Amino acid sequence: MFSKYAKFYAVATQGILTMVVLLFIGYFIGRSIDASSAWPGILAAVGALCGLVSFIYTLLKLVKEEEKTKNESETRSKD
After folding, report:
1. How far apart are CA 60 and CA 77, in angstroms?
2. What distance in Å separates the CA atoms of residue 27 and residue 18, rounded to the nearest whole number?
3. Per-residue confidence (pLDDT) for residue 1, from 0 to 100
4. Would you call 71 helix, strand, or coil by DSSP?
5. How far apart are CA 69 and CA 53, in angstroms?
6. 65 to 4, 44, 50, 68, 78: CA distances (angstroms)
7. What are phi and psi of 54, to 5 degrees?
């Protein structure tokens, strides 16, 4: 029971850290291009969105895996 919550906690932590890291990478790339323009903010937002998409994909994959293992255990218990 707790392993399920531990998996979701690990994925959530990984997703948040990925978003933050990609945000900073985008910011520093934009700052190296031109510090006085809008590039740092734009690339930071793009990095955060890429991290968010990656987080959602990983979360959906984990939920699908949980449902698959749940369905397999139910079919085995019926046999």
Report:
1. 26
2. 14
3. 61
4. helix
5. 24
6. 11, 32, 23, 5, 20
7. -65, -40
